[in-house]
Design a protein that fits this description.
The complex is a heterodimer of chains A (740) and B (243). With 740 residues, chain A is of the alpha/beta class. Chain A has three domains: 196 residues, Rossmann fold (3-Layer(aba) Sandwich), CATH 3.40.50; 212 residues, Dimethylsulfoxide Reductase, domain 2, CATH 3.40.228.10; 129 residues, Barwin-like endoglucanases, CATH 2.40.40.20. In chain A, 31% of the residues lie in helices and 16% in strands. A six-stranded mixed β-sheet of chain A has the order 7-6-16-15-14-8, covered by helices on one side. Chain A has a six-stranded mixed β-sheet with strand order 22-24-23-28-21-25. A four-stranded parallel β-sheet of chain A has the order 11-10-9-13. In chain A, helix 6 runs parallel beside helix 14. Chain A starts with 6 loop residues before the first helix and ends in a 5-residue tail after the last strand. Chain B has a single domain, classed as Alpha-Beta Plaits. Chain B contains eight helices and twelve strands. In chain B, a hairpin with a 5-residue loop joins strand 6 and strand 7. Classes of the chains: A alpha/beta (740), B alpha+beta (243). Chains A and B meet through helix 1, strand 5, helix 2, helix 7 and helix 8 of A and helix 1, strand 6, helix 5 and helix 8 of B.
């Protein structure tokens, strides 16, 4: 066996020699290779908190010694994530110690977009901002200031902006992401889904993923339930033009022609109804409009859908029968990023109706129900009412858009056109507006016309270059955030974030920035608390838990009532629709003049020589904000352009070759490598989102890979809720001469 | 007796690289290197009849580990749990072990100039923790335990459920990293990533011109290294270094 070294032989031979030379050194002995979390034999402090490498709110423990975070690990006490965190979570300390962080308040000295700044003090920065905001309010009214928030700390700024008097707040989470889904399901069941998505994957018999790429899209607890379900024997249907990681595991991979999902959904409904495979009891008890639905889907046979979707009719029938056999334990995943083709609310409706036919809403193995948790609040003065109303069209142009989350593209449009009234200033908090909103040239154009552009962020991502004033925020490891309640989880929970370490450089927590601004604007009455501890104590007070224990443990569960059967006995309202029932046929949509039942409308085809651009996630990056993280950059420094290998061969292109991607309007990306693979249809190409940032202030990520957002010069807007369908751009790879 | 082993469930693994990230963070692995990493097989077949799989690669702590005889300094050793480990104080960074490893599971640390590799997180395990990759794995795809213990889940997975190892007719060095899953899935991954022949620095001019001076140097380094190692043991106890 291997070389053996025992202490006895050491002591015998070398003991006397060693003791003199090493003990004389007089410094604390640290063991080489000693894992962070331990220093010598002394255990370092572990601080429970909530991850913010994405928004899933996984529980973490930060190991802290000498005011430094050595390591971020999963928190085993966390009710949802149970100690497991993804690659990004493990890389958390690399955000905290990123050399490129925004370190000081900055004031622009060059042109917008150049990224040339001078360092200023917080006093100067906040005084400047306050005087600007006061002046804008006087000349143009408070509505002339638009707010683009994202994340947990954004709540403080929401309060600030509402108190200031502007209703104009919008985040991409709605009109660039899950808005259509929330609206479509709410129209059908009376409520949306929320986050984390309440899909009962670990208890299901059959999972159906439509464009959802779990595995490449990693939310820790969701991917855990996915794996658990598969290991317990659940079958898997994956509908995706691309042979995704999930497709590799699928029993049925349906490589659908992009843009034809509604046809497939209608054909599935057709089979379920024609063959009496739907949940008849459930529909009879809980649903309205079944006869109209049956009538509507009668012509939509699998043969009809096969022509459109390019999925053979027998596979459509087989998968529908598998759903019928597994019902109600069918987890038809509602997806998350749902703004694809502009008819997305109707697609979400089709998915919701299919879910209802299978009887899986509120049933084990299907979609689970949220449980409300009591939260404390402060007694604030009334917020001023805006006479002008919103500028983004939420509730008017887009009748079903959320007025809480807003329509980002509506605000861009209003800024560009000055209609319904001029927007003069943007305050952007935690969202990369030029990478997360499509048509980035329009976004930049809008910014150019502003009187004031303020960015609060952690990293100098592309949008920071466009700011007049940059306020450096503390990372999630350095700040307090309000306790967050996840009501949609099967086991609902509250989690808290207190700082693990002091903010580095001159960065400040969001609550401090908002409160300081409020003080300068004379709005301190809206912030009637002195310290984070006081804020925290008030919010958790009605939860009847020990707040100190919650701080130590990081998160605490509440009893969940995830299934309908939990509610029937107590006489709760089961469906919060107008009729109190599931609306298969939507009277609300009919009243608004839209299709009360979803129908398939063909999408525009790619022109000759072009491919439809589709896009998605990688497990090691979040949006356009983690690419500069040293560890994550090491794991995935750039994206690749997936293209079907035969299509590549026809173009004379080879695997790994560098190309630029050019869209129908001539816009080109930075160079990107080709991934020529059989694992994608030949009518589309695929990019992981978030790369191709051009900010030279990002020393690792700047200039790496291709931006899908840059190629989105066109969108198709959903008339119901304002979402920007983004899979309507057509691109081609163009070889770079020197790289052939 | 203890014989630690790792079993990865390929049905569960989604290739998310949480294991790699946790390992990198735990052991300060420099960016671009890894002690454990994910590899995707090439997609097999013609659209739309396709198959592909994911390999989770790490040192297999082989029974007949080629890196052990390849190591001229004695830095590579086997511990009481069967893990193959590197004593950094003794390692001279010659890279022979890297060439010898049929699984390419070792690298030379670019700053320390020492060999580095997965050792099943021996220091964590000694404290009663799971290896970092196991503890973080979102899909619970990795199972770690003692193959000599009939109650251990790895015993059942290996001896009762037939978890596979990456071996070929030609190269079978007794790896203790195993894979389970649907048979065709496991076969696809095993076929795509066979072990390679170890390159052993045993004969010819290389040994004469390079290895000998290296070994002479190594003796001196070993002397110093052992002195340092001695104090580790005073501090830590001896279990890690016992065979």
């Amino acid at each position: 066996m291997a070389k053996a070294i025992s202490r006895r032989s050491f002591i015998g031979t070398w003991g006397a020699v060693g003791s003199v030379s090493l003990l004389g050194a007089g410094r604390p002995i640290t063991i080489p290779g000693n894992p962070p979390g331990w220093r010598g034999e002394q255990r370092v402090k572990k601080v429970a908190s909530v991850c913010e490498m994405c928004f899933w709110r996984c529980g973490i423990l930060a190991s802290v010694a000498d005011g430094r975070v050595l390591r971020v690990e999963g928190n085993p006490d966390h009710p949802l994530t149970k100690g497991r965190i993804c690659a990004r979570g493990n890389a958390g300390a690399f955000l905290l110690y990123d050399r490129d962080r925004l370190k000081y308040p900055l004031m622009r000295v060059g042109e917008r977009g150049e990224g040339r700044f001078k360092r200023v003090t917080w006093e100067e920065a906040l005084d400047f901002l306050a005087s600007k905001l006061k002046a804008l309010k006087q000349t143009h009214g408070p509505e002339s200031v638009a707010f683009f928030p994202h994340g947990v700390s954004a709540g403080f700024f929401h309060t600030l902006m509402k108190a200031y008097g502007t209703p104009n707040s919008a985040e991409p989470a709605f009109a660039q992401c899950r808005g259509p889904r929330e609206v479509g399901y709410a129209l059908t069941f009376g409520r949306g889904l929320g986050s984390p998505e309440p899909v009962d994957l670990d208890e299901t018999k059959l999972m159906v993923l439509i464009g959802t790429h779990i595995g490449e899209n990693v939310f820790t607890s969701q991917v855990a339930s996915f794996a658990e379900g598969l290991a317990k024997g659940a079958k898997l249907v994956v509908v995706d033009p691309r042979f995704s990681t999930a497709a590799e595991k699928a029993d049925w991979w349906l490589p659908i022609k992009p843009g034809t999902d509604i046809a497939l959904l209608l054909a599935w409904m057709h089979v379920l109804i024609a063959e009496n495979l739907y949940d008849q009891d459930y529909i009879r008890k809980y649903a309205n409009g079944f006869d109209k639905l049956a009538e509507h889907v009668r012509p939509f046979t699998p043969e009809w859908a096969a022509q459109i979707t390019e999925i053979p009719a027998e596979r459509i029938r087989a998968t529908a029968r598998a759903m019928g056999a597994a019902k109600p334990a069918v987890a038809l995943h509602p997806g998350r990023h749902a703004t694809w083709y502009g008819d997305d609310t109707q697609r979400a409706r089709a998915m919701a109706i299919l879910t209802a036919l299978l009887g899986s809403w509120g049933r084990k193995g299907g979609i689970t129900l949220p449980t409300s948790v009591p939260k404390g609040s402060f007694d604030l003065p009334d917020f001023p009412e805006s006479a002008k109303g919103r500028a983004d069209g939420a509730g008017t142009t887009f009748p079903l858009a959320s007025e809480e989350l807003g329509v980002t593209n509506g605000l861009v449009e209003a800024t560009l056109t000055g209609k319904p009234y001029p927007i003069k200033a943007w305050i952007v908090y935690g969202q990369n507006v030029v990478q997360s909103i499509p048509q980035p040239e329009r976004t930049k154009q809008a910014i150019k016309g502003l009187d004031l552009m303020v960015v609060v962020d952690i990293m100098p991502n592309d949008h920071v270059l466009w700011a007049d004033l940059v306020l450096p925020e503390a990372t999630y490891l350095e700040r307090y955030d309000p306790p967050a309640v996840a009501e949609s989880a099967k086991v609902p929970f509250v989690s808290v974030r207190f700082p693990a370490v002091e903010p580095k450089y001159e960065s400040k927590p969001g609550w401090w920035i908002a409160q300081e601004m409020a003080r300068r604007l004379g709005l301190e009455a809206y912030f009637p608390w002195k310290t984070p501890e006081e804020h925290y104590a008030t919010l958790v007070e009605p939860m009847e838990i020990n707040p100190e224990a919650l701080k130590v443990r990081g998160a605490m569960p509440f009893p969940g009532r995830p299934y309908l059967e939990d509610r029937i006995a107590s006489g709760d309202t089961l469906f919060e629709t107008d009729s109190g029932k599931i609306e298969l046929h939507s009277t609300r949509l009919k009243e608004l003049g839209f299709d009360p039942l979803p129908r398939y409308t063909p999408v525009e085809e790619p022109p000759a020589g072009h491919f439809r651009l589709i896009y998605g996630r990688a497990p090691v990056h979040s949006f356009a904000r983690s690419e500069n993280n040293e560890m994550l950059h090491g794991l995935m420094p750039e994206n690749e352009l997936w293209i079907n290998s035969s299509a590549a061969a026809r173009l004379g292109l080879q695997d790994h070759q560098r190309v630029v991607v050019q869209n129908q309007d001539g816009v080109q990306t930075l160079p990107v490598r080709l991934k020529a693979t059989e694992g994608i249809r030949s009518d589309c190409v695929y990019l992981v989102h978030g790369f191709g940032q051009r900010s030279r202030l990002l020393s690792r990520a700047g200039g790496m890979g291709a931006s899908d957002t840059d190629l989105m010069t066109r969108v198709k807007v959903d008339p119901l809720m304002g979402g920007t369908g983004m899979r309507v751009n057509f691109v081609k790879p163009v070889a770079i001469a020197s790289e052939r | 007796m203890t014989r630690h082993a790792m079993v990865t469930d390929l049905r569960r693994c989604v290739g998310c690289q949480a294991c790699t990230a946790a390992c990198n963070a735990e052991w300060d692995v420099p960016a671009g290197y890894a002690r454990t990493h994910i590899q995707h097989t090439p997609v097999q077949g013609t659209f739309p009849d396709l198959a592909a799989g994911i390999l989770v690669a790490q040192c297999a702590q082989c029974d007949e580990a080629p890196c052990l005889p390849a190591c001229p300094s004695g830095a590579t050793f086997r511990d009481a749990n069967g893990a193959v480990r590197v004593n950094r104080e003794v390692c001279i960074g010659c890279g022979y072990c890297v060439a010898a490893c049929p699984y390419d599971a070792r690298y030379i640390h670019p700053v320390l100039k020492k060999a580095d590799k997965c050792d099943f997180c021996a220091p964590r395990v000694a404290r009663g923790q799971e290896p970092a990759c196991v503890a973080t794995c979102p899909t619970h795809a990795k199972v770690f335990g003692n193959l000599e213990d009939r109650e251990s889940p790895v015993f059942k997975l290996v001896y009762d459920l037939g978890a596979q190892r990456r071996e070929t007719q030609a190269i079978h060095v007794g790896p203790h990293v195993y894979y389970q899953g649907k048979p065709q899935q496991v076969a696809l991954v095993m076929d795509a990533f066979p072990p390679r022949p170890p390159h052993m620095p045993v004969s010819g001019s290389l040994w004469e011109k390079v290895a000998r001076p290296v070994v002479v140097g190594a003796v001196g380094l070993t002397f110093a290294g052992q002195a340092v190692a001695f104090f580790h043991q005073l501090w830590h106890g001896e279990e890690d270094y016992e065979d």
